[in-house]
Amino acid sequence: MRFKNWKRPKFDKRGMTEYLWMCKYPDKLKLGENTDIGEFCILIAKHGINIGENTQIGGSCRLYSWNSINDQKGAIHIGRDVLIGCNTTIMPNVGIRDGAEVYAHSFVRYNTTIEKDEIWAGIPAKRIGIRKDGKKIIFGEQDEDTAV
What we know:
Blueprint: E1 22-24, E2 29-31, E3 36-37, E4 42-44, E5 49-51, E6 56-57, E7 62-64, E8 66-67, E9 72-73, E10 76-78, E11 83-84, E12 89-90, E13 95-96, E14 101-102, E15 107-108, E16 113-114, E17 118-121, E18 126-132, E19 135-138
């Protein structure tokens, strides 16, 4: 277990937490127990952000349920046991299912669904592998049946 005494963060009037990440519209943010959000992340939860239990989000990530530039909007749903690498940007109306991974510095586009146990990376993010039987299988690097 990652945390012994996990508790939901408190937000000041600006939406900042004691852990140095912030959320605009924190009343529309749902966090599962043992969720870990890294320092300097910004979450814009205007249309909802739901994050499942035991999920880790690396530092300096951006999650936008609303994009004010072109008015894209939609809730972000992140499942349980998901890993999101630092400096990743997630746009509105994205679903990331249980056990998935998004590698650092990735850009997950509007209306994207990342299925259970998939591994995604890049700009824009694309499926590059899967997690299977506790191992990572990265396509193109080795045979798909060989774990790396």
